[in-house]
Automatic annotation (TrEMBL):
Reaction catalysed by this enzyme: [(1->4)-beta-D-mannuronosyl](n) = [alginate](n)
Keywords: Alginate biosynthesis, Calcium, Isomerase
Known EC number: 5.1.3.37
Claim: Nucleotide-binding is one of the keywords in the record: no
Record's protein name: mannuronan 5-epimerase
Every Right handed beta helix domain range: 97-194, 200-334
GO biological process entries: alginic acid biosynthetic process
SMART domains on file: PbH1
Amino acid sequence: MVMGAGTYVVSGGEEPSDGCLMLKSNVTLSGAGMGETIIKLADGSDTKVTGIVRSAYGEETHDFGMKNLTLDGNRDATTGKVDGWFNGYIPGSDGKDSNVTLDSVEIKDCSGYGFDPHEQTVNMVIKNSVSHGNGLDGFVADYLSDSVFENNVAYDNDRHGFNVVTSTHDFTLSNNVAYGNGSTGIVVQRGSENIPSPANITITGGAVYGNAAEGVLIKLSSQVSVSGVDIHDNGNAGVRIYGSSGVDIFDNTLSNNALGSAVPEIIVQSYDDTTGVSGKFFSGSDNLIRGNTITGSDNSTYGVAERNEDGTDRNSIVGNTISHTSKGLTLVYGDGSFAGDAFPLVTVNGTEGNDVITGGAAHEQIFGLAGKDTLNGGWGDDILVGGAGADKLTGGTGADTFRFDQLTDSYRTATTSSTDLVTDFDISQDRIDLTNLGFTGLGSGKGGTLNISYNATLDRTYVKSLDADASG
């Protein structure tokens, strides 16, 4: 559907969920450009409008969207909560909207949200768009999955620039800009409901600056990465990790944050919700902060710091360049937390039983000892030694070494088998260390050499000695 240049005045329906304009499946609303085609809420509107343009309530809408136009909520001349764009099925129900694309759309001056895709939406793309002057958040990702927001700008919204919330997962924010918003630039959070938290969120590129609160807030979430973002001149911390775990903050530039209060540029803390809706305590543990360039403001206390409270453990602060902070470069309190230029080598020992050991961000040397062990190095450049028993070895990220100290660590004879399985060997960086076994090199498998063979059916590579033992 094509709308030419001009201003189109619209009104809401009888119910908030009617919106003003409703899109069905396989329909894209297209204008002449942002600021050229304008859909504007009528002066004097006094009803709640959940989407000037929206999808149908309770209907699984697919393959639809909007491009090259402006939605104007006209908040100075209307009353009632007004959202610009809304789509989604029914909160708490199994249905979904899917394959939604918004491109080059401006939403401004709504008393509620600008862009508000809601529960739940799969495969949504919002790109090259702008949201400003709205009463709540510029862009919301409310229970989205397999979706991307890229090359968008959120500014001068009363609350957050971008708000990723309500069980959103497998979601990417790429090269977006959030500035001059009334609270936080980018938020990833669960919200107040007792529901699964956002997970597997990627924030990469772009800039976050001049916001009244934090630049980036990660709250009650897991497996979130923030990289390549320019974060500066925000009122509170540049990045706050709040009751979240598995967060990776790397290769960002942070400068001149903490303008409104004396706080670290990056702060890590736990969140106590034991008296709240979940009844749980959320730790701020097992996070990685690495390779960032951090220059504090006159108010910045530390470059990176943990709060002195329970639940901030095993955080790794490594290889950051930090300057101009009033109290120090880094501050850690938690058990197993580390701050330094490079990871130390940490030794982790299993037991004689069947152990399951997963490493963290440090460089670890993990010994399974006896038993059928499952070892995972996690982050870092790790050394995995399964020991006796048929072990399952996973290096994880980094340049890992799988070391075998005894022939009985992994073997097969004509009558018995106790072989280890390496699940993720990367030929570009991982290594197998057999030096303690006394072999002279690779060859036929006889005369002190080792033979390498590949079983295509099992997709496995075997390293074998074919020399007879003492029993022949």
